[in-house]
Amino acid sequence: MHAEAGFLTSRLEEAIGWARKYSIFQYPFVTACCGMEYMATACSHYDVDRFGAGLPRFSPRQADVLFVVGTISHKIAPVLKRIYDQMAEPKWVVSFGVCTCTGGFYDNYATVMGIDTIMPVDVYIPGCPPRPEYVLDGLLKLQAKIHAEHATGRRPGPEPRPELTP
Amino acid sequence: MNASALIQAVKDRFPAAVKAAHAYRGDATVVLAREFLLEAAGTLKEDPAFQMSYLMDLTAVDFSAFGKKPAHAFFASSGVQLQPSPDIPDPDPWPGPPGPERFAVVYHFFSHRLKHRLRLEVPVDEDDAEVDSLTSLWAGADWLEREVWDMFGIRFRGHPHLRRILMYQEFAGHPLRKDYPVNKRQPLIGPVN
Amino acid sequence: MAQATPGRLETRDMLLNIGPAHPAMHGIIRIVAQLDGEQVVDVDVEIGYLHRGFEKMSETVDYNGVIPYTDRLNYVSPLINNMGYCMAVEKLLAISVPERCHYIRVILSEISRITDHLTCVGASAMELGAFTVFLYMIKAREYLWELVEMVTGARLTVSYCRVGGVKGDLPEGFAEQCRKALGETRKVLAESHALLTRNRIFVDRMSGTGTISQEDAISYGITGPFLRATGADYDVRKDCPYSVYDRFEFDVPVGTRGDNYDRYLVRMEEMEQSMRLIEQGLRDIPPGPFQTNPETGLPIPAAEMVDEGKIGNIQAIAGARAVTDPTLDGSAKPQHPNIAADEKRVFLPPKEDTYGNIEGLMQHFKLVMYGHGIRPRKGEVYFPVEGANGELGFYIVSDGADKPYRVRVRPPCFAIMSALPKLLIGDMAADLVPTFGSVNMIGGELDR
Prior knowledge:
heterotrimer, A: alpha/beta, Rossmann fold, five-stranded parallel sheet, globular, C: alpha+beta, Cytochrome-c3 Hydrogenase, chain B, three-stranded antiparallel sheet, 20 helices, 10 strands
């Protein structure tokens, strides 16, 4: 559905974008220490439910947003990719914590240096672990992105990772 | 028993097996020849003088790069050689690695009743990296030995099913050995980054 | 294989693969259970999904650089790991830290222990359906994390201890804030007791499941609240006391049956004992300079003092006293003797000395430049502390260089997880959830 089709359809786009961004079913793929801050964000003090994203769905088929929380090692990477593949479109990926963004300070034989090497990422939330306020900021950016996607009809693609010449 | 009494008791019990012993910083340590390991461990567990009910830890150390780190200047191209500070003097120095062999398998025992600790070091050569398994005495040795196999490549005779525990089966090499580079990745999917 | 003959149906065992991505809160692990109907016949546990190479990384950084890696071992009680590692290196160096530093470390370790037990009991209650208890306990954990943030600057991964001391002294108002946080925690514990301890569903699901005998527990190398629930009373703080634990008066709760319910009760009681320890610590801590009058001297913000020193304006800062925010900038000179061992080869000097006189500058240089740094003598040590899951031991081998040669951490939940087949076989499939919850598996510590 493209936005230039007319007044009614663009209002519809807005409505769908608004509905999508305020009813996020997240799949929290929690591995490590960031999971503690994820728990803190989801609980009473920093309640993520007031943003509409409070219901985790533990089946990838039912989820919209894949929150990759915590270090991804090479052993779990195929499992993560399979979960990402199982999710139905439209889907978004949030890279929570610096280990998922770039590998963090675990530059060794066991760690994936950033999950954007194996799947496209929409929002990066750095921090080790990020404070709940950063997580909520990232969530707001994600919501803006979800809204923009549907409003324009085009999905703003993730930036391609620059090739590192060896 | 305190550290020196423990060492003496072990030496009395296994005079042929004990290659060296020390109590650096108060930790009773005995270097044992590997043929006597199972027998010694059994005695440590059952004998009322020792009663080592706990196998606290089982690990290994790779001594191939011991003392070999050169002190380098901040800018290698400057040609400046740093003189590192002299060693802090020690009235009772550590005798050094347990032997010329590359590896040493280190066992930490603890007695729940008598509250004493003992460390056993078993030197293992690189070509014949095999030691007796202690799974018949302590059930916890199972996973600990699997980890030593995974990380160092030291086999354990008599272990029910020696396979990798922390790394995936497709991984080649033993990461904690000194000749394995830190960031040599072997990804299952994705690029080698 | 069973053959189905007409009139007779045979069943065969089912292999249920739980994980590595599964809804439980405790981390990624794979449990392959062979089920005969509902009964668990055999279990195989596969770990290593969070292996991050702690031991290999610690060979590439210097002694103080390992401390952030130790934070992320048992990430719900990071201060206990920090303290264990720093005390191991201090044993290797044969140095001792000031009294006040010991008390600060003990108080913060006990706060960490409370956060660990809160997370464990809260998460395992949530997995059984008691979502309210989880929310209450995380609320209490937030108060404690605010307290930790007040002292260290970070909520979770604190890197607070240093070899030879701690980063900064306790700030003003810590004691009152601490008492308030402990009051809130006590309220939460009372509410949780009311909701869970005599709750029919909770008791039915937790008692009698996941039982292990004392002999089996010792054979697997299990320590900590897991072992104490079986009846053995081994606690590193009482049996091999370290730091100033021998001056405190506290009890070690011991269970009888070794099942999940006993473990829950032991953890709840341990939280109360930790709070007792904290209160005694706050009462007995040797006074620090923030409780006495500050020295006369021109106060100047530390950042300004550093800038003046860098441009060479030494006269302006000669008699000044730097004012620092203890969470961010470290510690000012008057507090230094209370938080740092008196060892020039190990601990960084206060900034007034680094920029003020040549001895401080040299001390700083010798600790920070490549090739220098903290260089213990050649040796090996093993130092155990009481982690939240049991005996957390650090085995460090040094070859005289500025980087450790081998750092081995003896993870308490590794032993407990190796006993998981023993705990699960014989129970029903649904008992896996409370048992796994009470194990308190922390992925960072298990896989390192």
